[in-house]
Structure prediction request, 295 residues.
Amino acid sequence: MTTIFGIPLMVLFGQLLLGLINGAFYALLSLGLAVIFGLLKVINFAHGAQYMLGAFAALLGLEYLGLDYWLALLVVPLVIGALGILIERFLLRRIQHIDHLYGLLLTFGLALIFEGTLVNLFGVSGSSYPVPEVLAGGFNLGFMFLPTYRAWVLVAALVVCLFTWFMIERTRLGAYLRAGTENPKLMQAFGVNVPLLVTLTYGFGVALAAFAGVLAAPIYPVSPTMGSSLLIVVFAVVVIGGMGSILGAILTGLAMGLIEGLTKVFYPEAANTVIFLVMIVVLLLRPAGLFGKEA
Prediction:
């Protein structure tokens, strides 16, 4: 059997593939954070809770409304995104002209409210969400058995990430969004409704988190605390890629998933901390992040 540093090649490839799938979640969640911060300058600490709400909405929709997985992928992001629009319109907009720290504190408080409410209603034990029948089973790749659903998650996350990057960086709507955040008064003078763009942008970022939550529901136990621990890792990914960098969020999320997978092979004890070690090194060498712009 072929080995690298004493590690069987099959084990190495298997962990790399699993790391890439985890990286797809990191990329999708950090993308939502990067969109919100890059265009609104809001550090959305409720992002993990909104990811959790997406998973819970899919689960409750299935149990009480008969909402199947494919409808949940479409409906849940719209519903949670609409909740995000209400949050921006009635809460965040009221504090947009003061220090950004208040936006962080507000979203952190919202995260605690969402999580605490669901803990009181459903407890902290996780519930399972069934894998759709069409995505059951898997592929024998020779070096590992890849579940079909995990392959679907990787493809779906990459498609959504690339579509979001294209819309923001390569379309007229994206140009309006970027210009509206840099010089809102000038854009309003040209007849662009900047407040509406800001509101829809926050709603879209929240919808991305909810979409990731629906994707995660058949893989991870659906519980009120599922977003709190993941949020810290995603924030580290955003910092490494550069706060507000769309491309940085996508590439760094995938790369950190691969690095985490390699660490589990060669030094498992450091797997839970390697991303934070990378963050420290990046901040020392390039404080703006790998793809961020220097102030």
